[in-house]
Design a protein that fits this description.
496 residues; two-stranded antiparallel sheet; 20 helices
């Protein structure tokens, strides 16, 4: 299909998002931007969070990895299911009891101001790197299949997409994202189902026949029983539990939408629905990956990894499916970037700049600062995406999960220490202790073959990192009161 037509469709789709943003951001306020005025419907939030949780990386990288790893990724998703239960019944009641806008205010209440800012800083680092890595993958594909033929350079493509995202999140924030994420999730899942149906047709197979072929070729294997492998099932499932807890329950982007729901009970229903839905959706992505592998093998295709899905769609499927693929790809792209920029703006304004604690700022002053920070993060995204282009990586899903192991570990350690112990830390030391965990893990990762032989550290790096931070906090702390302090103290809670 003509790149001009595909580009026109992209712009029409963006126009639809902009219309939704205009409708939902009228009479917008800082409370609407940060927490959606706490009146979001839990089913809309749950459905929209599917798109945020999956992103363009799941859409492209998960199917592309099946030819190499089979269905091993599903082991992580099984672990995440149990992690979501912890979020629903441990973290959400805590967040609602403290009436948090930024979840990192919990660290201020429980541990101290330095701990709070350290936690927020690690979130900003984690989400910035993760979101730009996800965004880079989809921008690269859009560049290859559409915009390079129009003579547009990669940097301009990236700038154009970031400009689109800024335009529809600039005013509405969370209040807008609840609706745009719902729309985009619908488009992404529709594209997934249609691609599965068309590839089954190209292979002339019924769904169960295709599954039999996948099992025969070893592509549908779910559990790895090699204890030395980084895909060993126990490591993957346990890692999945803590990935969900850290990357969803301790992530401002994900929780910012969840706590925009009016009551904790409805927020819990949101997370439980998300946990069940993710099992089915990711399994369908893996099944698609198996079909792509069968198709590539039958056609003698050389494309693998992240390049496989686009190569099949644009090389062998009809124009209408190509259009749906592009819409679905964009729908996977935007939730992983728009929510990230919004959450990063929220965290930086509230946690680092402390605009909620600045009594000299009126509503207009807070809004001006928020707008500048929002644009600043969009510019930072542009710089980092160009950095990822320079480095390039065969499979972004592996890179993103590895980055998460290093950057979310301190958050896991800080929150677990606060929730599971009554001990009081030496607050001034906490930022350095939180930094020590990832540095030790970096050294271990670099020298693991010399230190551990054939054993490979995989996703359990997140758990190890969190445990190191937890242990260091224990050493540099003293016994506290019998009951942990969970009352809102001073200005720790934020009210708009």
């Amino acid at each position: 299909m003509s790149p001009v037509i595909l580009f026109s469709i992209v712009m029409l789709y963006f126009g639809l998002l902009l219309g939704v943003a205009w409708q939902t951001s009228r009479k917008g306020s800082n409370a609407g931007f940060f927490i959606g005025n706490r009146n979001s419907h839990w089913m809309l939030v749950a459905f929209g969070m599917i798109g945020t949780s999956l992103s363009g990386v799941t859409f492209i990288s998960v199917p592309g990895a099946v030819s190499r790893d089979g269905f091993y990724y599903f082991q992580i998703i099984l672990g995440q299911f149990f992690g979501y239960l912890v979020i629903a019944y441990v973290l959400l009641p805590l967040y609602y009891r403290l009436q948090l806008v930024s979840i990192y205010h919990y660290l201020d209440v429980r541990l101290g101001r330095r701990s709070y800012q350290a936690g927020a800083s690690f979130f900003i680092l984690s989400r910035t790197l993760g979101a730009t890595a996800r965004l880079y993958l989809v921008v690269r594909i859009l560049q290859d299949v559409i915009l390079s033929d129009l003579g547009l350079p990669f940097w301009f493509t990236t700038l154009l997409i970031l400009l689109m995202i800024v335009l529809y999140t600039y005013r509405g924030g969370v209040k807008t994202l609840i609706w745009t994420d719902t729309l985009q999730t619908m488009c992404m899942l529709a594209g997934l189902l249609i691609c599965v149906a068309y590839i089954l047709g190209q292979l002339d197979l019924r769904p169960l026949q295709a599954l039999d072929q996948l099992q025969t070729q070893g592509l549908a294997r779910i559990f790895n029983t090699d204890i030395d492998s980084r895909f060993f099932f126990a490591k993957q499932i346990i890692a999945g539990v803590f990935i969900a807890i850290a990357m969803t329950g301790m992530d401002q982007e994900m929780m910012q939408k969840t706590i925009s729901v009016t009551t904790v009970r409805d927020a819990q229903k949101n997370v439980l629905l998300l946990s069940v839905t993710m099992l089915g959706v990711v399994l369908l992505f893996l099944y698609l990956g198996g079909l792509l592998s069968l198709f590539a093998s039958s056609m003698g295709m050389a494309a693998t990894g992240d390049k496989l899905f686009p190569a099949v769609v644009f090389g062998y499927l009809p124009p209408m499916v190509q259009v749906l693929f592009v819409i679905a790809l964009i729908s996977a792209l935007f939730p992983s970037a728009d929510g990230a920029i919004t959450a990063l703006t929220s965290s930086f304004c509230i946690d680092i700049l402390g605009i909620s604690r600045n009594g000299a700022l009126d509503e207009a002053g807070k809004t001006r600062i928020r707008h500048r920070v929002h644009l600043g993060f969009a510019l930072l995204f542009l710089v980092l995406i160009m950095g990822f282009k320079w480095a390039d990586n065969a499979s972004m899903i592996g890179l993103i999960l590895k980055l998460a192991g290093f950057t979310y570990g301190p958050l896991l350690g800080l929150f677990c220490f606060g929730i599971l112990t009554h001990r009081q830390v030496q607050d001034r030391w906490v930022p350095w202790l939180a930094l020590a965990g990832p540095l030790i893990c970096l050294g271990l990762d670099h020298y693991q073959s010399a230190l551990l032989g054939s054993y490979q550290i995989g996703l359990e790096m997140l758990l190890l990192n969190g445990a190191l931070v937890f242990g260091l906090l224990w050493v540099f702390s003293k016994p506290g009161p019998k009951e942990p302090d969970t009352a809102v103290q001073g200005d720790s809670a934020v009210h708009w």
